[in-house]
Amino acid sequence: MVLQTGASGGGIAQLLPLERIQGRQVIADDDDFGTQGRTIRQKKVTAERLSKKYSGSQAYQLFLEAYQLLLWKQCHALINQRGLPGELELIVKDLWALRLQKLYEREDDNYRSDDNISQLFSSQTEWTELDDEEYRYHRRKLSDSPKVIDAVALCYLGTLLLRIPVSIGYMQRWIVRDDIPFLRLSRFVPQDMKERLPAVYHNVLDPRNVPTGDQLHRAVADLADLYSRDFGVTFPRINLPLLLFSYIKQLALPLEIYPAVSRLKELSGFEFCFSRQPGRFNRVSLPEVQLMSLVIIAAKLLYPLDDIKRYPDSLQDPAAQIIDWEAWVETQKEFDLRGKNTERLTRGCEIKVDESDVLQMTPAQLDDYMDWYSKMWIDTKKGTNPFADMFQTDRVDTDEVNPMPPPDDDDDGPEISKKLHKMLSRMKMRRVVADADVMALAEPVARPGSSL
């Protein structure tokens, strides 16, 4: 405390606190009485914050770079995880280079602004006509740009050029199992890229649903038509023998289907390649649809689904065997639900889990599902909140009494073989009625392939 004498008021003595500011003593005056508790806030000069997001043509260029990175990720996964040859990367690279050339040739960058020069724009500006024009620019660019599903289609066309027996069904199953990165692709985009991309591009690079078989077939057909029309690329027909054998095995059908399909192929005139004729899209022109349709027709001719008894004339007739179709349906259902009926969740079954399955799931299955969810949907970016470490989003490493084994990474080959052996063991033989015995019968005998 210090004794101070006011400059006015007759020298009234008072005790006031001693304030030291930078080593100097401040003496309060009598005129300042009653102002000790007043707080004066100085108005801060609002600094204009510049956004990191790109706009205009540079934003579109960055989008293409991010898309190319994701395309490489998918191609790299096919080579290193699925064992496809390394030449696939070179083929996909050449196909993508042709697509890029076409994109740059028709570039119509009508969007120009002063902000584009520095690639930064003020966060304090209102939504103006310029912002609306930029949004329309990006939407127009995206309408002609490749989609994420086109990257999978491009990899498929690469396998087609290399004559690798990979079907659309394989590609879809690998997407579900996350062997091919597709869902939440933004997790593979570097953070610096994501911060500079406009929001309209984030939605394109972040698909949240598994594509259906029809969508994949349509994407492949459209892309094959684009390369054929614009660049004169001719794609060969699918690897028919190996794909046909794969279809028969996966459907657990007898091998007698193979020669029947070969004969039907000659009668149908199918070419099993993507049509190069312009016109309306027709699913019958899809190569794998053509092949599968012949498999169904052959199975119906040799092993009908009705209750009519048809008798072959010899044991060499492929239709001498009988398929129990009710048992086939039950076996197929067991195969489709194999991931949910085991102690651990099979890869690819996580995305099929809904709220009705939670009550029947074991603790190990719940842990598998939460691990998958954490990997797919939770951002791994380190938070700035100091209390975030107290609430961990991933599994805590603890010493468990019964540690859970890692999920099985093997393919479905053993399960498919098991299903095939189970069905073949249930097949029965039809009684043979020779042509000589038909004459002695009073009623006509229905033969395999007939409608009666």
UniProtKB/TrEMBL annotation:
Principal place of residence: nucleus
Entry annotated with the keyword Zinc-finger: yes
Gene Ontology cellular-component annotations: RNA polymerase I core factor complex
InterPro entries recorded: Rrn7_cyclin_C, Rrn7_cyclin_N, TAF1B/Rrn7
Residue segments, region Disordered: 397-416
Domain Rrn7/TAF1B C-terminal cyclin: from-to ranges: 210-377
Localization terms from the record: Nucleus, Nucleolus
UniProt keyword annotation of Transcription regulation present: yes
Coiled-coil intervals: none
Sequence ranges assigned to domain Rrn7/TAF1B N-terminal cyclin in this UniProt record: 67-191
Keywords tagged on the record: DNA-binding, Metal-binding, Nucleus, Transcription, Transcription regulation, Zinc, Zinc-finger
Entry-linked Pfam families: Rrn7_cyclin_C (PF20645), Rrn7_cyclin_N (PF20644)
GO MF, one example: zinc ion binding
GO annotation, biological process: nucleolar large rRNA transcription by RNA polymerase I
Family to which the UniProt record says this protein belongs: Belongs to the RRN7/TAF1B family.
Protein name listed in UniProt: RRN7-type domain-containing protein
Provenance organism: Coccidioides immitis RMSCC 3703
